[in-house]
Amino acid sequence: MLLNTYEPWKFAFSQEETDFNNLKEGAWGIIGVPFDSTTSYHPGSRFGPIVVREASYGFEKYNTIFNTQLDNIFYDFGDVNVVFGNCKKTCDIIEDTVNELSDLKIKPLTIGGEHSLTIGVLNSLTKKYDDLTVVHLDAHRDLADTFIGELYSHASVMKRVHEMGVKELVQIGIRSASKEEEDFVKNQSNITTFKNNDVFHHLDNIEYYLSIIDTPIYLSIDMDVFDPSIAPTVGNPTPNGIAYGHIEAMLQTLSLKNVVGMDVVETAGDRLGDITAVSASKIIYDFLSLL
Fold first, then answer.
1. Residue 175, pLDDT above cutoff 60
2. What pLDDT sits at residue 1?
3. Residue 154, marked binder
4. Is residue 115 annotated as involved in ligand binding?
């Protein structure tokens, strides 16, 4: 065995296991989705899984912020095969992959890639959990019925998710939406919104709201929820976003809940050391450290 080497195509501290019969039930399994075919502004999130994983090697196993040691067993299963230019087929492949993970009793943690991948993950998980709450951190509502005529898109992902019959959609950090999206939200009883100013001034209320969710939770984090000064290389950067400390507080609360799946999407950096990738990697690292 070579010494002082690492595998940047696998997330740091992930377990090596080639025999699926020996996987730990209830553990987390990372999959990457290198897909960005519906991106409407800044392309490149297909490279997100690579640069996010590589950035993970900059962290210590001891998490000094939370005073925890990353000793939890989790796996990195690599990237799914995608069909560039075909979001629907790609989401079908993701759904099949998450079904396989569920059969192994592994929870999916997906690195994007564009936000549309969440459709594939939740097509699987909503069939397993009929009372799923989706916690969605994003600058945008992503509730367009269609985007440029497409049902499957990064801009319509949460509309497709809402149609799956989730118990509640909790949107946090929102600061950009169409009038049609806002009108849609007003007519729904199961969509709760905390906009960016709510995060700035009433974070304790958001933490409390998250703490009383009594259903399984799926957590979806679009990196454009951050201010562009923190995460500039995303598909659709939007000013006046939240800070990393806000994410830390929410992760600490959510780590005590029944989170059954998670994604971190829209990192569109194409170079090692990209600061958006570092922040995305830190989210995953922090979450796993808190479990």
1. yes
2. 40
3. no
4. yes
Cβ–Cβ under 8 Å, residues 106 and 75: yes
Q: Is 204 annotated as a binding residue?
A: no
Question: Is there a binding annotation on residue 202?
Answer: no
Instruction: Give the residue from 169, 211, 159 showing the smallest Cα distance to 193.
Output: 169
How many Cβ atoms sit within 10 Å of the Cβ of residue 167? Answer: 16
162 marked ligand binding residue: no
Annotated binding residue 140: yes
pLDDT digits (tens, 9 = 90+) for 210-227: 999 999 999 999 999 999
What are the pLDDT digits (tens) for 122-139? 999 999 999 999 999 999
**Tokens standing for 168?**
């509640």
Q: What residue ranges define each of the domains in the chain, with the CATH number in brackets?
A: 5-290 (3.40.800.10)
